[in-house]
Structure formats: structure tokens, C-alpha cells
Specification:
The protein is an alpha+beta fold. The protein contains four helices and five strands, in the order E-E-E-E-H-H-E-H-H. Strand 1 and strand 2 form a beta hairpin.
Length: 128
Amino acid sequence: MEVINALGRRKRAIARIFVSEGTGKITINKRDLAQYFPSTILQYVVKQPLNKLGVAEKYDIKVNIYGGGFTGQSQALRLAIARALVKINPEDKAALRAEGFMTRDPRSVERKKPGQPKARRRFQFSKR
């Protein structure tokens, strides 16, 4: 099997991944998954598509990820992994879509408006 690449985005985070056959090792920015995401919840989020299809120990994944915070990065990586698994085996798409792993979350930060302290926050109204 040749190397399959895919891209995942969430908020400002962008994850580029390269999937090859191996033993289930996930390397993020030249660091191990457990070292990059110390939280077990974020590790679980990253591995969700692999565990759903039962192929967690079948592929090695190398990741370049930048931008955003750790939650956005983990969800961007989940999307990238799901897209790569569909490239490998298109029949898995229905199962991954049912879990919501194939959908790019379009929500991002609303821009700050002029004359206001934040995007929606207004300065306090004073009647007198």
C-alpha cells in the first residue's frame, strides 16, 4: 500500500496526515500521540474513526498540524483520519458519516465589530 494523504480542518487548526500500513503508531509533529495530546479525552477523539472501523492497529499515521487550540487540532485530525480511511476503502464512508466523522464543522470565531468591545458584546447603555 502506498502512502495516503488527507487534510482536516476545524476552526483555525489544519491537520495534514500521511497514512501507511504499520502497527498503529500515530506521530504528531515528530512527537507521540500521548505526548502531544496528554488528555485521554483528546486521544480518544483522535482515535474515534479508527476504533469505529476496528483498524487502530493496522495503520501508521504521520501528522503535521498547526493553528488553533488543542481541541480544534484534535477534531481536525479526526476529520483527516476519517477522510484518509475513506480513500483507502470507500465502503467505510457510510459508517463514518453515520457517526458524524465525515462532516467539516463550519463554525468559526465571529469577527469583532467596530465600536464594540467584542463580536456581540456592547458597551453598557447609559440612559443619563
